[in-house]
Amino acid sequence: MENLDRMIDDFTHPTTGSLHGAAFIAVDNHGHIIYQRAAGRAGSAPDDASPLKLDSLYWIASLTKLVTAVATVQLVERGNLTLDEDVRDKVQELRDARVLCSMKRDSVGSAQPEFQAVRGKLTLRNMLSHAAGFGYDSSSPLLQEWSKSQGRTAHTFKGSMDGYRHPLIYQPGKSWEYGAGVEWAGQLIERVTASTLEEYMQTNIWSRLGATSTTFHPELRPDTLPPQMQMGERVSVGQGNESIKPGKVILGYPLKDDIGGIGLFSTPMDFIKLLSALVQGGGPLLSKESVDLLFAPQLSDESRMAMSKALGKQMRRVLGIHSMDDAEQADHSLGGPVTLKDIPDRRRRGTVSWGGLPNLHWWVDRETGVAAALFTQLMPPADAVVTDLLIEPEKALYRIIDRARKSAGEPKL
């Protein structure tokens, strides 16, 4: 464990490190925490020496997607939803959805949208696996051009569902693009349960786990939530901690809507309780069969190929994808990308994982019996240093697990 401690401390060293703070936590499939450490500062300003703690509060951004996926599968398990129904029957805002094919310039140079009707169903299965045709206007030049042509001011980080009321960008099931399908799944949950997503998750997920510091609305609980880790922004590369300046949470708060793809605040200690339940088989949230469903590959060959091309360099490193044309290493489940082949010295085949915009990461490796999360608050996303901080401690963690298995007379992983 000392080597793992040293890695975390080196990355967050106040003078030579390259992050102002980070927390790493791992749990086994018996519910035991096998490693936990928070190191560095909770404040992003150089003169703020307040120590980071394991129960510090973070904006977890797209880690929210796993929670919404769990909630959705709970409702599938209960018979309230099915994965292959057309969600447009229950979400009025999607009834007139169309596919934006292009923005065509007219004779005076104005951009005019060209649309296709949606062919087939808009399903939960495709929405949760990012194969339904949704994008994010924050990352889609096509949607940005469409928004400009419409005089639209809403956007991904506005803090309301107005930011996701835009066309699809491909036919459902025919490609892959990281986008707002999970946000709309959250709206579907609200419609079928007649509750807010906050209310549903508090009753059906967080209270069952004994997790008390996770919410869409931290502004409503100023006296009961732990102190928040401040956002940092890397403004240069190669200058260690001096490259980080104070940043901000870019999602508009207070939220107008409970946004099921990016809206939660949580702590490492709360979130690991969710991962622990999943690596142990689902209780008290889901049956084992439902966890199998949550983590099963879902993509067509066409969508899987598109995913490998759409993922950025750092996420390909995390998933062990060696080139943009490698469609054999990873697929996408309802809960996140799923590794199809072992990654040497790291996670095993069947591991499901994902991250969050301010450089957070989680994974659940049911074959090994380990789940873990790395928490930071650093922008911009896809920071190469944080990818290193994920991969190197991950390797160290698996070495520790291998040694423990060897000592117990069990075969090496």
End-to-end Cα distance: 19 Å
- Percentage of β-strand residues: 15-25%
Computed CA radius of gyration, to the nearest angstrom: 21 Å
Give average pLDDT, whole number. Answer: 95
Topology, number of strands:
14
Q: What's the helix count?
A: 11
Q: Order of SSEs, N→C? A: HEEEHEEHHHHEEEHHHHEEEEEEH
Low-pLDDT runs of 5+ residues are none
Strand order of the largest sheet: 2-1-13-12-11
Largest sheet: 5 strands, antiparallel
Shape: globular
Output the structural class.
alpha+beta
**Proportion of residues in helical segments:** 25-40%
Your description of this structure?
The chain has helices at residues 2-11, 64-77, 124-128, 141-150, 181-193, 197-209, 268-279, 288-295, 301-310, 313-319, 384-407, and strands at 21-28, 33-40, 58-59, 98-105, 111-117, 232-234, 244-246, 265-266, 330-332, 337-339, 352-356, 360-365, 370-375, 378-379. The chain is α+β, with helices and mostly antiparallel strands and 413 residues long. It has a five-stranded antiparallel beta sheet with strand order 2-1-13-12-11, sandwiched between helices. It has a three-stranded mixed beta sheet with strand order 7-6-14, with no helix packed on it. A two-stranded antiparallel sheet has the order 3-8. This is Beta-lactamase/transpeptidase-like protein. InterPro entries: Beta-lactam-related, Beta-lactam/transpept-like, Diverse_Enzym_Activities. Belongs to the class-A beta-lactamase family.
